[in-house]
Write a structure and sequence with these properties.
Structural class: mainly alpha
Radius of gyration: 21 Å
Number of strands: 0
Number of helices: 15
Helix content: over 70%
Oligomer: single chain
Length: 451
């Protein structure tokens, strides 16, 4: 199906389901692997190893941060260029972005490999937890130049209309990762680095398989002689800044949160926080898949000045995200004991009671998360990077840090309240942004009607 027919002539709801469902399923497959990662480590290697992964994971995400900036930052202008029928420009951005991602992977890999012991020492965790966390980070650092392009290639598959291919590839890779991790940890009895190695090998397989059709010229996007320009670079950075700031600021927040957790409750508190993060990482990628997979369609229609379809696609995103979030809230709030038992074999009554309280409080944040995140993705798709950045930085850094210090006097409960209070504040901010943007769009529509 040609881009014009696919993005402009397909009915809005059909287009949404064609784009969003495979993307959501793809992200769900990856999220479920992440869940199994936590379960395998917690059940096989124990609570200290589980805490170590949660100490390491913010730094693993930081390792991918610049590459994700380029991935998202290039996907938006590529979609808009295709909407304007500027295929040559789209392919140039595509090629330049891939080269930039490889360079970013080399730089961040070296930085994380060398710096990981010093970064972990800052947290004052137990020596064993620090040792395991450094192992975990360094495996990702070694593979960094080869695997950081995975997220970008997934985006480019969606832009090319190959969402089902991306979905099945993600499912196959997630299954392979889970099997590899089981073999490495349970059969071969490897340490925590085996979990990281399983992930990296699977990511490498995804990158190689996904890249091949682009390299062979099988898709709309293909490699071309790169022509780097100041305009292209600024455009990529501008559009990717919201997700970059969200990644960096969010991980800085996680580091600050982990330090506060260690000071108040030690490795056990970090493990409880890790349970929240793993369960949240099942929901968040699904909503991200719904939103991110629809971004090319929104961007294409925005470039084609079909604002009526842009608004309808946005409504689809908000509706679907709300449904997913409500289901997640119900599961976390009413089945906390079942979910907690997935990650720990502990029978400590005090630990389990604190974990149950924490998860119920965390569940409330999911009633707000969908609105702020959907607004952020919508603003990114229509090149309103300033609005998207406000939401991403607010949700990932400003509000969480503010509440960490504001609620410090009430101990661990204050830390558990951080997520719902943060998302509540971001929901209010997102609503204001949508009202302002609606007025801007109305003016654009009026100008088009006058012409």
């Amino acid at each position: 199906m040609e881009h014009k027919e696919y993005f402009l002539k397909t009915s809005v709801w059909r287009l949404f389901f064609m784009a969003a469902l495979p993307g959501a399923i793809s992200m769900l497959a990856s999220a479920l692997y992440g869940l199994f990662d936590g379960i395998f480590v917690g059940q096989i290697l124990g609570d200290t190893a589980f805490a170590a992964i949660n100490l390491a994971f913010p730094f693993v995400i930081i390792n991918f941060a610049i590459s994700d900036l380029i991935a998202v930052g290039s996907a938006v202008p590529i979609s808009i260029a295709l909407g304007k029928q500027e295929e040559k420009e789209a392919n140039n951005i595509f090629t330049c972005a891939l080269l930039m991602i490889v360079g970013a992977g080399v730089f961040m890999g070296i930085l994380m490999y060398v710096g990981s012991p010093y970064l972990l020492a800052f947290l004052d965790a137990s020596e064993e937890a620090q040792r395991l966390a450094v192992q975990y980070i360094r495996v990702y650092a070694i593979f960094s130049p080869l695997i950081t392009g995975g997220f970008a290639l997934d985006n480019y598959l969606r832009i090319s209309g190959k969402t089902k291919f991306g979905m099945w590839l993600s499912i196959a890779v997630s299954i392979a990762t889970a099997l590899l991790e089981f073999v490495f940890l349970f059969v071969l009895k490897l340490d925590i680095w085996g979990a990281a190695l399983a992930s990296c090998l699977s990511m490498l397989a995804f990158v190689l398989i996904a890249f091949l059709p682009f390299a062979l010229g099988k898709f709309t996007l293909h490699l071309t002689r790169p022509k780097f320009s100041k305009k292209t670079t600024i455009q990529i950075i501008k559009c990717g800044t919201p997700i970059f700031l969200a990644n960096i600021s969010g991980r800085v927040t996680s580091v600050v949160m982990n330090k506060a957790l260690i000071s108040m409750g030690g490795d056990s508190a970090v493990a409880i926080y890790g349970m929240q993060m793993y369960l949240g990482e099942v929901l968040n990628p699904v909503i991200y898949g719904l939103c991110d997979s629809t971004q090319p369609a929104i961007g294409y229609n925005w470039g084609a000045k079909r604002f009526d379809r842009v608004k309808k696609l946005a409504k689809c995103i908000f509706s679907a995200s709300a449904i997913v979030s409500i289901v997640a809230f119900l599961a976390m709030f009413f089945l906390p004991d079942v979910l907690i038992s997935l990650f720990t074999t502990s029978t400590d009554v005090a630990f389990l009671k604190e974990a149950t309280k924490a998860l119920k409080i965390f569940a409330v944040s999911k009633l707000f998360f969908w609105f702020a995140f959907s607004t952020q993705c919508y603003m990114t798709a229509v090149e309103k990077s300033f609005y998207a950045t406000l939401i991403s930085v607010g949700s990932a850094f400003i509000f969480p840090i503010l509440f960490i210090f504001a609620l410090n006097s009430i101990g661990l409960t204050g830390l558990w309240l951080n997520a719902p209070l943060t998302m509540g504040a971001c929901t209010i901010m997102s609503l204001i942004i949508l009202i302002v943007f609606a007025k801007e769009m109305k003016k654009k529509e009026q100008k088009i009607q006058l012409k």
